Structures are given as C-alpha cells and as structure tokens.
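thought: fold this chain, then report.
action: predict
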Amino acid sequence: MQPGSTVPEGTLDAPGATPDPAGPAAAPSAPAQAPDPVQPVVPPARSGETTGSDVPLGAPAPFADAPEPLPDRAPAQAPDPVPPVVPSARLGEAAGSDAAGADVPLGAPAPFADAPKPLHDPDPYSTPPYGEPGPWAPAPPVQHPGVTPARGTAIPAPPSPTAGPSAPHPPAAAPVPPVTQHAAAPAAPLPADAAAPSGGHVPAPPPPAHPGTPAAVTAAAGTAGGPAPAPSADPWQRYDPWAAPAAGVAPLQQNGAAVLTRGQRRKRARKALAGAAVLLALVSGGIGGIVGAYLERNGGVGQVELPQAGKESADRDPDSVAGIAARALPSVVTLHVAGSDESGTGTGFVLDGRGHILTNDHVVEPAGSDGEITVTFNSGDTAEAEVVGRDSGYDLAVVRVRGVSGLQPLPLGNSDNVRVGDPVVAIGAPFDLAGTVTSGIISAKERPITAGGESGDGSDVSYVDALQTDAPINPGNSGGPLLDAEARVIGINSAIRSAGGGDLDGGQAGSIGLGFAIPINQGKRVAEELINTGRATHPVIGVTLDMSYSGDGARVGTKGSDGGSAVTPGGPGDRAGIEPGDVITEVDGQRVHSGQELIVKTRAHRPGDRLELTVVRDGGERTISLVLGSSED
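observation:
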C-alpha cells in the first residue's frame, strides 16, 4: 500500500478468501434497505510498509505485532477516549470472523523502529496525552461552530472531487456503530504482503491537523472504484487570521450592511454638511443673541465711540432753503429800538448801497422822535440808524445807517407773479434770535387784514392786502423779508394770527401757521415815496363808509365825519356819480364783503389808477368807473 492512500470501499475480498456462511446470521438486525455506508478512516502508511497493493475495505490488518484489543471497562471507570471509526462488516461477512483475521484497534502503536518519539518523558501520573489513559478523559479539541455567512456573502463552494480507480459497486452495508480507540496511539503499519484490490492503488488520507488528535474522517466514493471525494473542509470552521483565503471563497464582511454606492455616499455627505451648517447657524445665533443682550444691558465694553459722517462740502443747491438762506442772510439786519416809554426788536433788510433799510412802522414806532435805533448786521457789526420816513396806514418805514460800506442789497421780486403753493423762506429775529430761517409756502393771496388801532382813533390802523404763508413767523420777525425760490423779496413779514386773536405781534403769542406779509409791489412804491419825499400818498375814492354796516358789501354813509355829506364834493366818487347810501359790492370784478375790504383793495393801487366798481342802488346794480385820487388833494 502506498503511503497516505485510502482503501476504497467495495465488495471484493482478499484473493482466495471464501465468504463466511455465518455472515448473514451475524447481522440479523440489518434493515431491508441499507443506508449509505459509513466512511472509514484508514491510518496513514508508515515507513517500511509495502506499497502498490490494496487491502479490501474491512479486512483485518495482516501485521503480526498488532496488540490485542483492550477489554471493555466497567461503567464505573472513566470513559475511554473517542476512537476513530473502523470499517463496517459487509453483507455476507461475519463480524469478527477468524477467516478474515482478527480486528486491530485503529491507532495501536506501530512496531517499526523509526516511529516518532514523544517530545516529553512519559508522565508518571498517566495524564493524557503523554501517558496512558488516566482517570480523566482527554479534553476534546476546541470546537468552533461554523458562522452563518452574512447577508449577501457568497457561500464557499465545496472542493471538486478527484477521480479514483474504478471498482464494482458494493452492496449496501448495514450501519455499524463507531468503535472506541485509545487516544494518541500511533497507527500500525500495514504488512508488506497485504493484498490490494486489483487494478488500482489506495490514495493516502490527509495527515491529522494537529499532533495527538484523531485522523480526519474521509468520505468514500459513491460506488466502488468510482472517484473518491477530496477531504472536506474543517468541520469546526476554525478561523486562522494569518491564513491565505481559500480559492473561490469570497471574504466575509464584518457586518451585513449593504455597500453604499458613490451617489449614496455623496448624498449622505451633503446631508451631513447641511446638518452641520444648520447646527452651526443655531449655535452662532444663540451665542450672538446672548452676547448682544449682554452688551445692550451693560452698555458694551470699553470706551464708546459713536459713528459720525465725514466732512462734506459746504456748497448747497442755490434753490434749496440752505442756498437761499446763504445768499440772503448777509443782507438781513436786526433792529433794537429804545424809546422813552418802551422798546422793541424787529427785522429789516438792505434796500441799496446807501444804507437804506426797509422795515415795519410798528417796529420803529417806540423810538418816537428822540429814541435810538441800533442796527446789527449778520456779521455782528452794529451801526446807529435814523428814521427816513414812516407810514402807519401801510405799516412801512425806512431807516438809514451811515458810514457803513460793503452793504449787500437784497433783490426785489414781483408779488403779482406769486401763486398759491409757491415755496417761500422767512428770515428774522423772533424773540431777538437773529438770523432765524423758516420755510413754508404761499397759503393765499390778497388776504385783507388790518393791524394796529391801539390809539383808539383809527389813525394807527394799517390796511394790508397781504400774502398769507404758513412759514413760521413770530414776534421779532416783523419787517423781515419773505423770499421766493430765487432768494428775491416778494413780501415784508408784518403780522400773524395767534391763538389769542391778536394781530401784528399782538401780545407775545407764537405762530400757528398763519403769517401775513405786505406784497413787495406795494412796499416798493411806499419805500420809494418815503425815501424821496419822506411821506407816502394814499389813493382815495372820496367817500365816507358806514363801518357799522353788517350787510354784504361796503355801504356809503349818509353823513360825513364833519356832519357834512358822505360824498366829498368834487372828489373822485362825486365825479363818478356815487351817492350816499350806495352799496359797493365789487372792485375790478373782485367781491368785497365789508368796508375794510374796500379800503384794502383801494390801497393796493396807486393814486391815478382807474377802478371799475359795481354799485347796488334801489335794488338795482350799476357799474361805475372812477380814477383814484390822492390823500394830499
């Protein structure tokens, strides 16, 4: 027999052997249909045994020095070590027949000289595995149950069987229980004269995995002479981390999770980044809120430095309020008047380079004939002034300063060009606050107002066909200029309507948005007369009005102030055909509702101007045309 060969399973006996007639009687318990034969384990060939001959499966070993089988031990003794499986008896063969030879326990020591020696001395206490079987059973090898492959892991394919010598198909054999054998006993070599089945050799079984352990069980071929399968894999699935992976077997994964694709990994990474960004934003917002609340409650940290705009150009649009004020302020002055009985403050503006300054009559009135008037310019320079002329009926006056050079006169506009809604700027010294600039619009035109009358005889009453503005005008603004968008004078600030009902700086009430200015066209005519002649002329109709009349219009009285006729004989009214008791309702097509309004409309003209009057007499209306006369006539 060749070393390492395996005896194939078959029904052939040794040459010349006669089947034992007692064979069928020896196995009466065999079933009608025999199961698969038990795969025998044949010990490896030892040195010195004859090769090239096959021994039939189940035949006794023909070597002479095989030891006798050990007798069975009593149940009270320690159990015998697990022996290897021996071949089962075949049909027609008696178990333990002398014709076939005595059975030799598998694993008995071989009687050859070069048998391997134990690495240690015999154990005097007979402790396995070095000595004889002791009172303890040998520990079984470490068992590693097979691990169930993870989901999706390929199952190792069984090794391919190798072809073996062909043999006749043996009949089914009855199952034979395993026979015990002493552990760690080396197998005996086969004799040289052992017969081998004809036409083949016995392949050697694989060597044992570890010294001292039973030989591995080999599977016999399906039929006698057929291919013998290769040794099966380790039944205990012992894992060696250092061993190379078997061919055709995929490596096991650490877990059963599916491998993510590249797109899934990118998607997961994007989700992780988005979550991290949201978390960072929440944390940053929370920290910022806490820090902000702390700084707000505790006034911040360190020194306080407030933000501020840088320096800009001082130039402004000439049409803006700032541009208008910049051009007009050098020509506006403040007047301080002091008399024997009273004093006051007002505003004026320069008319020409000779030192003439226009203001209101009620501003210079406290000075009287021996009072003092001091003019303060925008630059801060001051000069004494004297009255050139004044007129209480128009509430205008002209004063003059001497010895002052570099005066800048304000340009004069045309009040007839003004329209309601035009922007205006007022400059003055309200409550002695020089250089105060306010702005607004023209609220109305030709608003008839009267001011003064403190004397009681009506000699100080002024009648003004005024421009109404909402630019704030307060006591101290009287006499100051009302400018249009081109910084031209279109009016002289003269009176205000206060909440207390006073006019023309009445009391010390403040502005409620109702300011009145004398139109510059009227102011220019009066100023020229005052400068040239020292007095102003008043246009007159030549009639005496009934101021107590409460009806609509202005009624001519029945008697004059001296007891004579209410219509001055030879005057403008007499020549036009006006009679006592007539009611004048219109002047140049504009409705008049009282005697005061008729006076205002008349004084808005120059002497010599022609007027068209609508008169109601005896229930009928008629139109009368007349030429205005002068109060000097």
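thought: worth noting. Residues 369 and 408 are 28 Å apart (CA to CA).
final: tokens above.
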